[in-house]
Amino acid sequence: MKDKIITKASEMFLKLGFKSITMDDIAGEMCISKKTIYKYFCNKEILVEESTAMVHKEVHQIIDSIVAQNYNAIQENFEIRKMFKEMFKSSDTSPIYQLKKHYPEIYEKVISREIDECNKCFRQNIEKGVEQGLYRKDINVDTYIKFYYTLIFSINETTILESEAQKLELEALEYHTRALATEKGIAELEKQLSNSNI
């Protein structure tokens, strides 16, 4: 039952917002009593925290499965972006923006966890791209990782509308890729951009 509550709560939080969804709403949606929810979660903060942890885990499992498909480095980034777009398509406001505004302590935990994971993903992607001749060999990998996650996180933290955040993220991905790319990489980027339904 605990996992079912977390799954339903995550769905509702992402769709309608962390602030606006109450324990009553979740209980009503699941046709259970509020008491049942409180048996597993003594307050809403704990439920929000466990929901964000579950979403984080899901996201990174999907990223791992995309990486396992063995796309080239540039296509891999576009596939990951597509997955995010799909996953958060029903959100009106950016989940990260909402967390920062309404649950700053949970937000801090999520961000420190995400930064570690993103560092790892971005590093693997850049190393793969250099190996494939899509990214330049003469780059400072650490600097580029830092630039990219600073861009992505600042978009999500400051952009209220999820649709606007996704549009900016695509532009950030193009900006990041152009900065790294060789001629071969630019050709692949143009191909991905023309396939990308913006």
Short description:
By secondary structure, this protein is mostly helical.
Roughly how many Å apart are the termini?
39 Å
**How large is the radius of gyration?**
19 Å
Q: What is the CATH topology classification name?
A: Tetracycline Repressor, domain 2
Q: Into which percentage range does the β-strand content fall?
A: under 5%
Mean pLDDT: 90
Question: Helical stretch count?
Answer: 10
H and E order: HHHHHHHHHH
Number of domain modules: 1
**Which shape, going by the Cα principal axes?**
elongated
- The secondary-structure class comes to mainly alpha
E-strand count: 0
Spell out the CATH superfamily: Tetracycline Repressor, domain 2
Main sheet properties: none
| Approximate helicity band | over 70%
Low-confidence residue ranges: none
CATH class: Mainly Alpha
Tell me which CATH architecture applies here: Orthogonal Bundle
Name a few traits of the molecule.
79% helix; Tetracycline Repressor, domain 2
Describe this structure in words.
The chain has 198 residues and is mainly α. The chain has one domain: Tetracycline Repressor, domain 2 (Orthogonal Bundle), CATH 1.10.357.10. The chain has helices spanning 2-16, 23-30, 34-40, 44-68, 73-87, 95-102, 104-131, 141-158, 162-180, 183-195. Helix 4 packs parallel to helix 7 and helix 8 packs antiparallel against helix 9. The chain is elongated. The mean pLDDT is 90.
